[in-house]
């Protein structure tokens, strides 16, 4: 890994106790750039200070499974506009240690709000009932998405991929419509529950043949989202539990698939939903998936700690939170990494990986995600691309907290009512090094001290204003 090779060089020059620091700032001055390295017991030069502690020996928590973003039809369309050389370089920057080393991706199973018109599934068949799925077909867009995921997997052998549908084929629903929510009939027709379970099996098998092994699924994106201008389906918590327990889980096992099922895939404010699904179908459900749209402050993420306390053997993931070009809220993407990690999340997935400059393409419905923009934006003619600020903020976590790291408990994080303050999360990495990711919300540099359980003195360095800074401390 690149940062490990950098550490090796630094240690050779500065000794075995050398550490390193990399930062990304709101003004773009730092973009995963080298910052002042922490030093044991260094003296404060006379600026405001803040102290954190990490408990890398006695405070071990969850294992990190990765960071990444969602691959949508819009992502594929935008990235495929680039020349082969530019696209290869971009994917290398996204998926390898020389870049930001993404290792956890989510993809849309057929159409989402970030698809060009018309909406589609893998078995539309002009709306005719097809219980045997003889018309199942990925189509051009599905094949293009599977191909891009296969390329990503070649670049990142440790990649974990989650697949999520926005809706089953319209003929499987009570209202017989792919788009047409807003009523109680935007639900799965019980007569086609077996067909829907087999739809998952065929999709997984077909992607596997394309070289895009899928590690996990959720059975429905935002199951309480019943919007009428995009593919959606209303699934109540008891219905979700029963569908996984009685149909989807057994179908995956009967097909010899090891694909995990994750529950929920919606906001943090309906704790009872994943709780009910776990109580009904825990033998088939390995994790809970959460979105950020109930709020992105520290208190909004405490349901994940509650879930861990009730289901300590299950994993949790933050599987969707928007990114947008032009936002001055640089804190947003770093926070939807920081706060879930502080509350037992095993991985983080941004919405979305790539788009055209300014957003899209998106379905034409007025309520859809037209302004949702990717971590990377591509000019509509494919002549150039730009890594947006959220790319760098995500990279502060994904590049320096490797897969297999263990998040550790700590103290010192605090936000004031005016939004200022400091936050941090630490990890013990597989090679014994330690990472501390620090969010500085002050419009000034802060002298940060980090105490550990391995050293009697604190690590100290200047952390840039309005930045996210990652310290890599040597093996104790």
CATH topology label of the largest domain: TIM Barrel
**What is the average of the pLDDT values?**
95
Relative strand content: 15-25%
Share of residues in helices: 25-40%
- Which term fits the overall shape? globular
Distance between the termini: 20 Å
Oligomeric assembly: single chain
What number of domains?
2
Contiguous low-pLDDT stretches (5 residues minimum) are: 1-16
What class do helices, strands and sheet pairing give? alpha/beta
Family: Belongs to the glycosyl hydrolase 30 family.
Signal peptide: 1-18
Domain Glycosyl hydrolase family 30 beta sandwich: 404-470
Subcellular location: Secreted
Entry keywords:
476 residues; alpha/beta; Immunoglobulin-like; TIM Barrel; 2 domains; 8-stranded antiparallel sheet; 8-stranded parallel beta barrel; 10 helices; 24 strands; 26% helix; disordered N terminus; secreted; glucan endo-1,6-beta-glucosidase; signal
């Amino acid at each position: 890994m690149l940062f490990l090779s950098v550490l090796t060089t630094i240690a050779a020059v500065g000794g075995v106790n050398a550490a390193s620091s990399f930062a990304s700032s709101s003004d773009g001055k730092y973009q995963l750039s080298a910052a002042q390295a922490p030093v044991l017991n260094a003296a404060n030069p006379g600026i405001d200070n803040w102290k954190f502690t990490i408990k890398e020996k006695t405070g071990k928590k969850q294992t990190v499974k990765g960071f990444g973003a969602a691959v949508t039809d819009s992502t594929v369309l935008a990235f495929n506009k680039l020349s082969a050389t530019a696209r290869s370089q971009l994917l290398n920057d996204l998926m390898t240690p020389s870049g930001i080393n993404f290792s956890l991706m989510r993809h849309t199973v057929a159409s989402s709000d970030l698809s060009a018109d018309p909406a589609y599934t893998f078995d539309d068949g002009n709306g005719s009932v097809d219980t045997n799925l003889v018309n199942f077909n990925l189509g051009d867009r599905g094949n293009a998405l599977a191909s891009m995921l296969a390329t990503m997997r070649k670049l990142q052998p440790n990649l974990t991929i989650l697949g999520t549908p926005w809706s089953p084929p319209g003929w499987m629903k009570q209202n017989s419509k792919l788009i047409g929510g807003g009523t109680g009939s935007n639900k799965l027709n019980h007569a086609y529950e077996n067909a829907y379970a087999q739809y998952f099996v065929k999709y997984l098998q077909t992607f596997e043949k394309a070289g895009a092994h899928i590690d996990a699924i959720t059975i429905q994106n935002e199951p309480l989202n019943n919007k009428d201008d995009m593919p959606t389906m209303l699934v109540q918590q008891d219905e979700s539990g029963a569908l996984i327990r009685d149909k989807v889980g057994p179908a995956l096992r009967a097909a010899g698939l090891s694909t995990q099922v994750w529950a929920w895939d919606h906001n943090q404010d309906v704790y009872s939903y994943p709780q009910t699904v776990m109580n009904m179908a825990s033998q088939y459900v390995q994790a809970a998936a959460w979105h950020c749209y109930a709020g992105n402050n520290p208190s909004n993420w405490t349901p994940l700690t509650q879930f861990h306390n009730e289901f300590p053997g299950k994993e949790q993931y933050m599987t969707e939170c928007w990114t947008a070009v032009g936002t001055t809220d640089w804190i947003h993407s770093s926070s939807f990494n920081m706060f879930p990690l502080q509350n037992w999340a095993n991985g983080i997935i941004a919405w979305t990986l790539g788009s055209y400059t300014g957003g899209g393409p998106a379905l034409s419905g007025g309520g859809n995600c037209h302004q949702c923009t990717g971590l990377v934006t591509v000019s509509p003619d494919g002549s150039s691309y730009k890594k947006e600020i959220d790319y760098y903020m995500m990279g502060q976590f994904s590049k320096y907290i490797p897969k297999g790291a263990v998040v550790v408990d700590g103290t010192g994080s605090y936000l004031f009512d005016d939004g200022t303050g400091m936050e941090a999360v630490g990890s013990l990495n597989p090679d014994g090094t330690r990472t501390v990711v620090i969010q500085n919300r002050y419009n000034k540099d802060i002298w940060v001290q980090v105490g550990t359980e391995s050293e009697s003195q604190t690590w100290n360095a200047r952390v840039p204003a309005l930045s996210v800074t990652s310290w890599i401390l040597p093996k104790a």
